[in-house]
Each structure stands twice: as C-alpha cells, then as structure tokens.
Amino acid sequence: MHDVAAAAGVSRGTVSRVINGGYVSGAARAAIEAAIAEVGYVPNTAARNLVMQRSQAVAFLVLEPPSLILEDPNIGAIMLGANAVLSSADYQLVNLVVDSARDTERITKYLSGGFVDGAVIVSARANDPITRVVTDLALPATFVGHPADLKQGIPFIGIDNVGSARAITERLAATGRKRIGMIAAAVDRDSGADRLTGFRQALGRRFKPNLVAHVPFYDYASGMEGMRQLLQREPRLDGVFAASDAVAAGALQVLRELGRSVPGDVGVVGFDDSPWAQRTDPALSTVHQPAKEIGAQAADLVLRQLGGKTPEPGGILLPTPIVWRASA
Amino acid sequence: MHDVAAAAGVSRGTVSRVINGGYVSGAARAAIEAAIAEVGYVPNTAARNLVMQRSQAVAFLVLEPPSLILEDPNIGAIMLGANAVLSSADYQLVNLVVDSARDTERITKYLSGGFVDGAVIVSARANDPITRVVTDLALPATFVGHPADLKQGIPFIGIDNVGSARAITERLAATGRKRIGMIAAAVDRDSGADRLTGFRQALGRRFKPNLVAHVPFYDYASGMEGMRQLLQREPRLDGVFAASDAVAAGALQVLRELGRSVPGDVGVVGFDDSPWAQRTDPALSTVHQPAKEIGAQAADLVLRQLGGKTPEPGGILLPTPIVWRASA
C-alpha cells in the first residue's frame, strides 16, 4: 500500500479509502487505480478481515474415519448443501479432514485461532475434543446429529432415527418376514443407537438380541461382516434391516456369494437413500435422508448466529419418507 | 492481552513474551499463566501468523463437478495422502469446494487473500480461472495432472496415461478379443485425452473410430450411457476399455441388464484400481493408480517450495501396474 501511495503521489489514507470504498475525488481515484495496476498490489483480505474480527469462512468437519466419509455419498451431499447456502452469503466453506490425533489437535487450534467464524460439525460422538473446543469458545456452530453431551442451547439438525428405523422395520415385517435381523452399525453415535432402538420397538416381543450383529461403521465391509454373523447365528433368516445403504450393499454381496435370492429368500432394507441404493442389484428399499437440505439448514443456522440471532432451543428434525424399491 | 496484563500486574510486552516463548522470570510467568486462565484469553493464531506473513494452511482444490468427486474414491485418496504429509509438517489442509461460478470467483479471492500459503490443484483444465490466479500470484502450488496451458516451471505430478492405457488395451486384446471398443470419458482433460491416445496406439490399424463412445465424466452414469452407445453401433462387441473404474461399473450394469456375460461374452477393463474395482461383479481388471502417493508427493512439492526450494523443471510420473482380476 506504501508503494501504491508513493506511485500515485497521495497519502496511504487516501489509498485505503479507495480500497475500502470510501469517498475520494475522481482524479485521485484514477491515479490510485493506475498505481495499483502498476505496482501489482493485491489487498490482503485475511488482514482486512482480521481488523473486522471476521474471516468470512466457516469450517465443515466430519468426525468419522475418512475412509468412511469417502464412501458415504450422504456426507458429500450434506457438504454441498452447506456450501450452496454459505456461498450465496459470500462465506467460504473450508472442509477440514480429521485423520489422526495430530489433525484433531491442530484443528482445535485452527478453530480457536480466528481462521473461521463458525462451524458445521457432522457425526460428533460424546467427549470429542473438537466439540469441546467449539462449545468452550462459543464459536457459532451447528451440529448435524446430536452427541449425548451437547450443551443446551447449541443448535443441532437431524432426522428422527428412532421413528424412521421403526417405520422401515414395520414395513419389512409386513411383507411376511418371520426371522428379521439387524446389522447395527456405529451404536456409539446417536444415529446408530437410535436406529437400533427403532428396530427393537418395531419388533416388540418378537425382538431377539442374538439377531442383532454389531459392526463398527456405516460401510460396505461392515455390511459383509454383519451379514456373515447373522447367517451363522440364524441360517433361516428371512429379513435384514441394514443400518445404512452401504451396509446393505455389503450384505447383498454376501447373500449373492452364498446363493440366497433377494428378495425371494431374504428381504433387505437400508437407510439413507444414497446413490448406493439405486446401484445395488436389486435396488434397495430404504429410508430417504434429505442430506442436501440437512446441510443447507445447518449452514443457515450458523449464518443466523453470525447475524447475532440466538438459535431456538432444541434441534430441527427433517422428514424421512420411505422409498420402497426391489430388495424387500 | 490487555486484560491479561492488567490481571497479572505486568506489561503487555511481558505477556507477549510468555505467549511467544521468550524469556521472563518464573514468578511473572506463573502470574501471567494464572491471569490467562482467569480472563479466558485465547491467542489469535490468524493474527500472529499474519505478522509472520504465513497462514500455515494449504488449499486442496479439485476442479471437477462435486457430484463426480463424491463418487470417485481416488480423489479422496489423493486428499488423504496430501493431508498426511501436510499434517506431519504442521500445516492445515483446507479443502475448498468448487460448485458454481460464484464459488470460483470467491475462491480466487481466498487464494490471493493471504488465507493459504500454497495449493494442491487436481484435475485442472486449460483456461481455468483458478489456475490463472495461482500462476499469476506465483502461489507455491503443485498440479495433479497437467493442464495444457500450465506455465513452465510449475511442478505437476501424475501418471503416464498414454502408456498405461496402451498397456491395458494390449492385455485385453491378448485375451483374443476381436471387436474392442472404448468408453472415452473427459477428453477435455489431459488424462481423458491421453487414455484415448493410448487405446488408439494399442490397436493401431485395428482401431475403429466408431467404436469409441465419448462421454462427459468419469462416472457411473457416463459408463451406462457409453456402453449402450457402443452396443448399438456394434452388437457383436467383445471387449471394452472403460476410462475409469466407475465408468466400467456402469458398463457392467448395462451388460448385466442385457444378459451379456462378463468376461464370457464381453471382456471389460477399467482404470484406477479404486474400491469400485473390487466391488463390481465380476471384480475389475484395471490399471492401478497410486492415489495416496500422488497426494503425498504433491503436498511434499508444495512444502519444498514453501521452504524456498525451486522445483525441478517438468513433472513427476508415478508407476501404474496392471491388476488383472476377473472381468477380462
């Protein structure tokens, strides 16, 4: 800026006024614009924003193993929904990858260090260090999902996992299935635990604990593992509720390998209505998650907080219609 | 910092020395640390880094439609490879989503505004505005792939797409196939154009232009579309080179729908060796791309430039072995 002022023969204050949109005479403006072009000056937006106490950036974090994020198209759809809303408000979404303890530690510093004005946080579990930093700093944030230890007053957005799981299990049972199992993934997340609760509620007294296979993640490999376990425990199994579409895709692969027909021998239902659901053979009957809308509303809640509004207490739950295709 | 100094009864300079690791007496340090805890002071890392003229952050950008990024596990693997290298050097990878013209415009400002020290850029085409900003600013960057207009001296990293495509086509032809077609995706990218060139070279005088179906993207839907086109033009087709594994997965789906056996009636080969390759039925014969390694080396080249080293002229090409499975 010093060089621009010298080249234009004006004070640095006048240069600053041109850059920041204040009043200067037409002649001074023309001289300064020519000088800017001459010296190749680029305003440092980071510096300017810092003076304004803002970065115009919002972090997007998914607290799941990255291998899982990469194969879960829903998470991508949530991110695109959030990006669209932030972009139209001229905010930059910065997606931060959490792949190690070192990443977590560095990111907590990044979040508290003035690089972002807010955050959208997906899939937090209780006791996550990133959740703790965000709540301790009172960084404007929205959670997608609802970790058990989320402080009152911090907004969250999600779906009714209990009700949705109950509804699709009831629908599966209504096709005449007698021995229905569940591949229950990620029960350390609120979503995973709630889907298992909904499954239990739907079966009521017909629920058998040994027909629940617990697997760690919402992914294809977990689906294969869970399906093998269920068939070992109950070879006459005729129905399966898989906790996500990726899990269901893994289950279908095992059923195919073992020569079981779907839906003839075994009816299979998933959860998410992600692109997986239309690519399996047969296509999956599943619960539709409005992933883009979840992301859009999460971003909107961050922007409202940045605009000085206090979020309403409690969370927002979006509707989840059942999509019935060919797998059950 | 003013509040901390007042609470501790010392000067702001002394507080600054404690925070920045300079020498102070043990008693002053204890008083200041107690005052920091009391007033809840958090150092603004963004401000401190700005004084040092650095952000300790590197942008990661993929210049492809986001829907495609979400279903291409290779891009995720490149990002994780880059993140691991940046993380161990205490740099924050910030992944920026490009989903609209507005995103592009805002991101060019972000890149030039001091928020990042460098960038890894994947899948740039010629004339991309983001490429132009990066090269105009001389921002330390590495390109994954090689856009036709990349300035001399800017490092890039990739694979020998021509040689790899030639090798897998030759291998497919060696299984006795007589009428081999190609589903050629994204020929507006260097990778897409080069894979088509390799296919042509392998077939030599047996190459028939009407057995190339051009499709826009490296994705499943493009694979379905391309396969339908090829079979319409040549119903007796007995071999297909699909430009990526996702494209091959779409092609397999169409062949299955039409009752053609693979590899019995038609041999199919892909490109990438992504998780898709092991989930198709039958599993794909394909070209292995060392995606994590590509990301790691791209990040390393950015860090070298940040360390003041001039990158070697030209690019780095990594080896791509053929992985032969069951689809051909």
Q: Could you describe the 3D structure shown?
A:
The structure is a homodimer of 328-residue chains. By secondary structure, the first copy, chain A, is α/β, with parallel strands linked by helices. The first copy, chain A, folds into 3 domains: 2-43, no CATH class; 57-158 and 292-316, Response regulator (Rossmann fold); 161-287, Rossmann fold (3-Layer(aba) Sandwich). Helices cover 47% and strands 15% of the residues of chain A. Chain A contains 14 helices and 12 strands. Chain A has helices at 2-8, 12-19, 26-39, 45-51, 66-71, 73-88, 101-112, 129-137, 161-173, 190-203, 220-233, 245-257, 275-279, 291-306, and strands at 57-62, 92-96, 118-122, 141-144, 156-159, 180-185, 212-215, 239-242, 267-269, 286-287, 316-318, 322-323. In chain A, the strands form 3 sheets. A 6-stranded parallel sheet of chain A has the order 2-1-3-4-5-11, sandwiched between helices. In chain A, strand 3, helix 8 and strand 4 form a beta-alpha-beta unit. In chain A, helix 1 packs across helix 3 (26-39) and helix 9 runs parallel beside helix 10 (190-203). The first copy, chain A, is elongated and about 90 Å long. The termini of chain A are far apart. The mean pLDDT of chain A is 90. At the A-B interface, helix 4, helix 5, helix 6, strand 2 and helix 7 of A face helix 4, helix 5, helix 6, strand 2 and helix 7 of B.
